[in-house]
Amino acid sequence: MKNTEGTEAAKRAAGEAAAAEVTDGDLVGLGTGSTAAHAIRRLGERVADGLAVEGVATSYQSRALAREVGVPLVPLADVGRVDVAIDGADQVATGANALVKGGGAAHAREKVVDSAADRFLVVADGAKLADPLAHPVPVEVLPDALARVERAVEAAGGAPSLRDAERKDGPVVTDNGNLVLDCDFGTIDDPAALSAELSGVPGVVEHGLFVGLADELFVGGADGDVTRDRL
Ligand code: 5RP
Fold first, then answer.
1. In this structure, which CATH number among 3.40.50.1360, 3.40.50.150, 3.40.190.10, 1.10.357.10 belongs to the domain 4-131+212-230?
2. Active site residue: 16, 110, 140, 197, which one?
3. What does each of the 231 residues of the chain score in pLDDT, given as a tens digit?
4. Listed residue (231, 220, 229) closest to 17, CA to CA
5. Residue 110 designated active-site
6. Which candidate, 40, 50, 174, 202, has a CA 20 to 30 Å from the CA of 158?
7. Cα 188 to Cα 32, 44, 131, 159, 195, distances in angstroms
């Protein structure tokens, strides 16, 4: 799993607080990343204690972890709505209700699941807060459309960079078999407009701007405290 900023205690506090919101009978969207992993582990403990829920995974990682900790799964292909989704973020702008996601290259399935949720809970540590957003935006791209999308990103004022794999030569290949461009737009003053522009580029499978999707933000602190905010 990639290592991101923020203490493990802060991530755990946020993830576990969000997992406490899940109730019997819920279908739960299981986000990807180190913060969401704490929520999945806590859910596993609650299932062992008798909580009756099912999960839908957003990635190979969250599926494997859910299996390991005993959260029963339903396939994403069978899911049209979700009761509550719990997912992390790489950066959060609360004023604009906008997130940058995709640090784990899972944002395409994450957006399918998170946008289908009645309640989408974002879990993060304080280092993720920024207003305006200024984090490169991951863009998942059909491999054969790479040059086309790079050109479109540049035309939109961004600097695209193909994400390289670690411990494998060549690029990251997503769970969907695609490539990822990390696109630096500097500060993002209008995330909704940029989101719409990127969504309109042929060859873009999905991008990591999540605008207006989140319902609640759980921010963990290093001493285990959690601040909750409605978005
Ligand atoms: C994966 C994601 C993650 O939720 C995001 O990268 C945050 O990860 P972490 O909790 O490990 O900092 O969007 O695609």
1. 3.40.50.1360
2. 110
3. 454 556 999 999 999 999 999 999 999 999 999 999 999 999 999 999 999 999 999 999 999 999 999 999 999 999 999 999 999 999 999 999 999 999 999 999 999 999 999 999 999 999 999 999 999 999 999 999 999 999 999 999 999 999 999 999 999 999 999 999 999 999 999 999 999 999 999 999 999 999 999 999 999 999 999 999 999
4. 220
5. yes
6. 174
7. 24, 37, 9, 13, 10
